């Protein structure tokens, strides 16, 4: 076993060494070209013995059967059951062959022998036809099963992806697992079901042939197994080499995919050309593609070597099996009639045995990839379950209906640190926002304004501290109960490739369209004239990659984004993060009027670098390096002569000149 592992180790590390050495130039710019950390996991796989692999089979088979059963119990039973019955037909056909040859080699007149073989011949024809029919039926059942399993697997994947907390997408471990699951893991879960049906088919054939040989000449059974082992060994080794290679390349492929996306999509097409970045991107891409090609060559070379050794040993083993049969014939241990039947059985048995070993190998291989998907599912489920409202003690507010619109929202000593960072983005912020009031967040770039907004919108959970709605810790309540009261006009304008109408009503897409609200949201955001001026009005598609689609200017997209936030808003909390950054003066004034009109009834959190837009806020919170350093209305802060007053003077001066 040690020597096998060592032999494999000699093949694979050579590939790794060459990978990291030759890509040195590219690695300077793209460090992800290095093998990923969980390569160590693949090295464990590398040293697994055939028997360890065989021991894992029952678990993998059980797992595949559970997957298949959950997708369709009826087709699972059909796919497995028909194969098992086909096995009975195989044994019957082989025993009929044995009967026929014994009868034909008997000492009797030719016609008597032919007539005597008639019933066995009829049985052979019947059993062969039945086996073929059952095989077709089993194949049909398997093909019906596959799309059902795929459907279920995909549904679960996207359920997890959309339910996972936002912070998961900032985490590189999650990104790697997601990539591995998407790359092949999900497909492998589906393939594993098919593999297990193939495994059952092959196992049934082998058992059927062994049962027939037990009647014809039991001595040949172990020889049959011995003859198929070398090919099986080679298949297992090849798969493992490919697995180890693939696993080590996930990180590079992720980077490759990203560079390809940067080159081939319209969103980066402008900037790429402004900065003449195409050549550099192509260079990075080429380096990675070359690296992939070299890795492919390496693995193909190793696999071919493995298969050649397997085939060579298999040839010798088969020669040995037939040699033993000839020797038994020569010494009179088996009569000629039995030897003839044995040749037929061995032919079928060898094919079945090789299929079995290949199936074992495929089940194991796909099992490894499927484990990537299961690992991802487990990680995603863990992240979902770790959300405070699920993981913490009993909820602090019971029931399942939406909470009432909050009268007070409080941040109590809230801190937040992004995953993987060693400093807080927000530290010890305490604030109270009364219903009907406007709070403005002000501060330099990177001071933590958007992070506070995201915490308020429930996108992230505070690392410490609490966010209270009417005294209730919001992180311990199901977000479905309070998110309906939160609307956001995000800093990063999302250009949804939908119609203008869907783009505006996305935040309430599950509800019937409210035309009046749709128009008033668009009007208040300064987007109504624009939408009504589109060739197709509200039905205008906003993506030039589809026929009839169009694109918008930066400011027009931002108006649409504001309309989306306003349509969703129902008088709860509206977070507007730099909502006017791309707007012209008229549109900006209109939007700020709209936000001001909320005063007295709805709560607004406004982030803006244009201090003219925040002077009317009931309170202005000034953030610096994640800390709240000043809080109060405009007039008080100007009198206090601190950071805000400084910024105000600076902007007023530039407007005055
Ligand atoms: N997803 C993220 N992962 C890691 N760090 C982040 C992430 N988003 C923001 N940060 C960091 O958190 C800090 C606060 O960022 P934030 O976006 O809240 O600042 P801001 O005050 O809104 O800045 P701006 O005025 O530029 O919009 C910054 O140091 C930023 O680099």
Automatic annotation (TrEMBL):
<dbReference type="GO" id="GO:0005524">
    <property type="term" value="F:ATP binding"/>
</dbReference>
<feature type="transmembrane region" description="Helical">
    <location>
        <begin position="74"/>
        <end position="97"/>
    </location>
</feature>
<dbReference type="InterPro" id="IPR003439">
    <property type="entry name" value="ABC_transporter-like_ATP-bd"/>
</dbReference>
<protein>
    <submittedName>
        <fullName>ATP-binding cassette domain-containing protein</fullName>
    </submittedName>
</protein>
<feature type="transmembrane region" description="Helical">
    <location>
        <begin position="117"/>
        <end position="141"/>
    </location>
</feature>
<dbReference type="InterPro" id="IPR003593">
    <property type="entry name" value="AAA+_ATPase"/>
</dbReference>
<keyword id="KW-1133">Transmembrane helix</keyword>
<feature type="domain" description="ABC transporter">
    <location>
        <begin position="409"/>
        <end position="650"/>
    </location>
</feature>
<keyword id="KW-0547">Nucleotide-binding</keyword>
<feature type="transmembrane region" description="Helical">
    <location>
        <begin position="308"/>
        <end position="330"/>
    </location>
</feature>
<keyword id="KW-0067">ATP-binding</keyword>
<keyword id="KW-0472">Membrane</keyword>
<feature type="transmembrane region" description="Helical">
    <location>
        <begin position="220"/>
        <end position="243"/>
    </location>
</feature>
<feature type="transmembrane region" description="Helical">
    <location>
        <begin position="192"/>
        <end position="214"/>
    </location>
</feature>
<feature type="domain" description="ABC transmembrane type-1">
    <location>
        <begin position="77"/>
        <end position="365"/>
    </location>
</feature>
<dbReference type="InterPro" id="IPR036640">
    <property type="entry name" value="ABC1_TM_sf"/>
</dbReference>
<dbReference type="InterPro" id="IPR027417">
    <property type="entry name" value="P-loop_NTPase"/>
</dbReference>
<keyword id="KW-0812">Transmembrane</keyword>
<dbReference type="Pfam" id="PF00005">
    <property type="entry name" value="ABC_tran"/>
</dbReference>
<dbReference type="InterPro" id="IPR011527">
    <property type="entry name" value="ABC1_TM_dom"/>
</dbReference>
<dbReference type="InterPro" id="IPR039421">
    <property type="entry name" value="Type_1_exporter"/>
</dbReference>
